[in-house]
Amino acid sequence: MWVRKCLLLLAASVTTVVADDDLSKYALTDTGSTNDGNTFPGVARPLGVVKLGPDLYTGVDAYSGYKPTGNFMGFTMLHQSGTGGAPKYGVVSQMPVVGVVKNPLSDAMNDARAAPDVTEVGYYKASLGSGTVLELGATNKGGMYKYTFPKTDEPRNILVDVSHVLSSYRGQQLEQRFLGGNITVRREGDDPDRFYYTGFGTYDNGWNRAGPWTVYFCGRFDSPSTYKTFLGADFTSDKLVEFSDESTYESDSARLGALFAFKENTVISRVGVSFISADQACSNVDSEIPEGTSLDDVRDETKEAWNSQVFRKVTTKETDVAKLNQLYSALYFMHLLPTNKTGENPLWDSDEPYYDDIFTFWDIYRSWTPLFHILQPTHYEELLRSMIDTWRHDGWVSDARSSFHNGAVQGGSNGDNVFADAFNKGVKGRVNWEDAFASMVKNAEVVPENNDDPRDPTGSTKEGRSALPDWLDLGYITPRFGRSLNDFSIASVALGLGKVPQFLKYYKRSLNWRRHWSRDMKALGFRGFLGPRDESGFIAQDPLSCGGCYWRDYYYQGLPWEYSFNAHHDMDTIIDLMGGPERFVDRLEMTFTPNIVPGNGQFGHTIFNPGNQPSFATPYLYNYVNRQELSVKRSRFIAKSYYRPTPDGLPGNSDAGAMESWLLWSMIGLYPVTGQPIFLIGSPWFSDLTIDLGGGKKLVITAEGADEDTYYVQSLRVNGRDWVKSWLSWGDIFEDGGTLEFVLGDEPTRWTTGRLPPAPASTSAEHARQLLRSW
């Protein structure tokens, strides 16, 4: 494996003191970087703008820039982690080159690895075939490159390529393009031999098919140099022009950059970015990484940022290193995205926060946003406010947003679910809920303009719900369209705001999912599944097949069998349609039976797919019929079978931390039902775990007898009281903090004999009103 993890104690020479409780040493920053996990193993601060790391070329899409094989083609300031669809960013590039450079767009863009990369929190090291060693560090809006060139008579160069982007090879009009930019080289103060560069690049596309966007940069070198600027029409251009004084090169299409040459073996470069101006990029790097800052300083400040802002929010006295690796690695990767770009939004003036690089609410609303709410209540409120402010100025709260553009709607307007979850858990602060509700209503009533995405030409993939014409006219969706969801989320917020007519309207519409229930669909001895239909009736469909499970297929990222469990606001109806509690359990058990679906070999040929979100809640649904012991059995097996603290340790694409958040909920011993303030009870991994909820509040979890083989719940006390329900409410343990005292054993026990989890849409509108008001 080309990436190995350094877990070393701090050297005595470190100048910045790191707290004794340095939990960052447990976070393995290469976890999920291979096997299509697509995580970013470079350097970053929590939710930081800069994610500084390598870009590798192998002829296939490198979504985070990283690949375990292939050659280096640049080290860039902006990346994403755990995304798919097509690569995004890979811009503001530097690349070390040893030797004479005749053509900067060919000679300088391909260098092999000479040794395994080293990655840890706050630090990345690459050893290149040229003999150069490159070490990286990052702040929120700045990055540090430390080059150690080989001792040679050959020229030592650093290539700055304004036109560099991560490439995509899959088509579908997702390939990023350099649309133009400029670079200016200036003298550093009165020193005739030191230079710095500023400029900008404009780009488009990526996974969200973004329109043009611009990043500004400011790069400083702490060593004397000479330089040349270049302008090339294509990759084969050999035009190289030398200047002796300040110079600017600008392009509206041709690739451009500069080549700096150094006599010293060790060179430090400090680079800042901004989306406002080059002056602001210089201000960012000068304030965050002033001249004289060492790489050790940057590294250790980054470690402390992760410790104080993330890791120390979840603590335990346990010493099992493997479990600590999984805990803190998962916390790390769920805090790389979204990006907090507050103060860097070029589109409108606002006092509101601005968060970008949301990939995507479809991926993260089920488990990531509920956990982010608990761990980062301030950032969570800011994210909600940013969503609302985007609606005010851009017209829509989209399912996804990156580089200041909406795009990549999957399933529907899943931001509605995020709003409902926050509202029903009492989030107030500075959130304008009237505006939030207005944005939800727009999603529910206005058909978005078709953006002609070749992935799905039937309607908009940029924002909104493209299938609204069918949903509004027919009460179901025909294959003419792709996306429409989430009316119950709107209903719950409407009621809480006192908008009873709107509550009744959207509550009624939320039941229309039942019109897709086909009693004639059969598989494996079970009858009745969610099926495709048109005006003529139901369309023949195998419950164990979804075709390609892609944008234009009847089912997206899941089998009909999986989707048939997914109306979580109406679970009592699902249980009845499946034949009652016993048949419901039988069907769940079949979901996890090996060797059922031959084409799903990666996951033991089971119907259950841990790598896609429609299956996320399914292991916990046994709680709806008080078979909590089976939820423990299945969720623990999944977590232990498909997750490891290794580069190949995810069951699929991280999806910007969605996978990691699912694992964290499993480790905590709970699972959220998004849009409702309830949590299904699982089984904790640790004998003790404390979650800092902010404001002096804590959730303290203990588990007597917890071990690898003793994980079935025997009994539970909540805030000192005996507990027999299979679920908890937000008010029980999170609103003011609380305690969970588990007793675990090696044999399953049916200890949940209390009231079943609520199903607010399964009886009547009046019952739903009473239930929602009780929340």
Automatic annotation (TrEMBL):
<dbReference type="GO" id="GO:0005975">
    <property type="term" value="P:carbohydrate metabolic process"/>
</dbReference>
<dbReference type="GO" id="GO:0005634">
    <property type="term" value="C:nucleus"/>
</dbReference>
<dbReference type="InterPro" id="IPR005887">
    <property type="entry name" value="GH92_a_mannosidase_put"/>
</dbReference>
<dbReference type="InterPro" id="IPR041371">
    <property type="entry name" value="GH92_N"/>
</dbReference>
<feature type="domain" description="Glycosyl hydrolase family 92">
    <location>
        <begin position="280"/>
        <end position="746"/>
    </location>
</feature>
<dbReference type="InterPro" id="IPR014718">
    <property type="entry name" value="GH-type_carb-bd"/>
</dbReference>
<dbReference type="InterPro" id="IPR012939">
    <property type="entry name" value="Glyco_hydro_92"/>
</dbReference>
<dbReference type="GO" id="GO:0006516">
    <property type="term" value="P:glycoprotein catabolic process"/>
</dbReference>
<dbReference type="GO" id="GO:0016798">
    <property type="term" value="F:hydrolase activity, acting on glycosyl bonds"/>
</dbReference>
<feature type="domain" description="Glycosyl hydrolase family 92 N-terminal">
    <location>
        <begin position="31"/>
        <end position="274"/>
    </location>
</feature>
<dbReference type="GO" id="GO:0030246">
    <property type="term" value="F:carbohydrate binding"/>
</dbReference>
<dbReference type="InterPro" id="IPR050883">
    <property type="entry name" value="PNGase"/>
</dbReference>
<dbReference type="Pfam" id="PF17678">
    <property type="entry name" value="Glyco_hydro_92N"/>
</dbReference>
<dbReference type="GO" id="GO:0000224">
    <property type="term" value="F:peptide-N4-(N-acetyl-beta-glucosaminyl)asparagine amidase activity"/>
</dbReference>
<dbReference type="GO" id="GO:0005829">
    <property type="term" value="C:cytosol"/>
</dbReference>
<protein>
    <submittedName>
        <fullName>Glycosidase-like protein</fullName>
    </submittedName>
</protein>
<dbReference type="Pfam" id="PF07971">
    <property type="entry name" value="Glyco_hydro_92"/>
</dbReference>
<keyword id="KW-0326">Glycosidase</keyword>
<feature type="signal peptide">
    <location>
        <begin position="1"/>
        <end position="19"/>
    </location>
</feature>
<dbReference type="InterPro" id="IPR008928">
    <property type="entry name" value="6-hairpin_glycosidase_sf"/>
</dbReference>
<keyword id="KW-0732">Signal</keyword>
<keyword id="KW-0378">Hydrolase</keyword>
<feature type="region of interest" description="Disordered">
    <location>
        <begin position="444"/>
        <end position="466"/>
    </location>
</feature>
